[in-house]
Amino acid sequence: MGVYFTNQTIEAFNLINEQGILTGNEDFVDEDFLPSYKWMIKQMDRRINNDGSFPIWLWTKKPNLNDEGHFYKGTDAVSLTVEVPDNNVLLSDFEAWHCVLNEWFCSMTDEESKLFEQDKLNITKEQSWERIFDLEKIQKSEMWNGNSQIVQGVTTVIHKEQILNIEHFTAK
Hints:
3-stranded antiparallel beta sheet; 26% strand; alpha+beta; DUF3841 domain-containing protein; DUF3841
């Protein structure tokens, strides 16, 4: 079991109180990011025995709730501390995830990036995205050079009983 953090709207929190569980929901995904989310769902299906469910995003370290970007400004939300079995969580590098979101090649070196642009590599852009799960490789790579230190995770469901702490906040 691992301890993780997830930020949810007050509406999602009310659902978990009413239904006893929280699941990922396609309705809350920006349509521009839908292809990236569907790619992540396929990875979840392969790596943590997911059934095609949309992800619930987790953090391995508690995010600063005073930072912008958690939700639209003024959104009432909660930060939940949850305990989830580690085998139900797929970890990835937050910064490298942006390669998937932006449909970039996930390069490990400047040279590799140049070779990809010249079509001289035997790896596709989509295959390079799987590197986001190799946290050690990302940290040691020339391209990321230890700059990427935020580890995120996805899981399929959170049960009300898994909530260890609730912190209410208003998004900045």
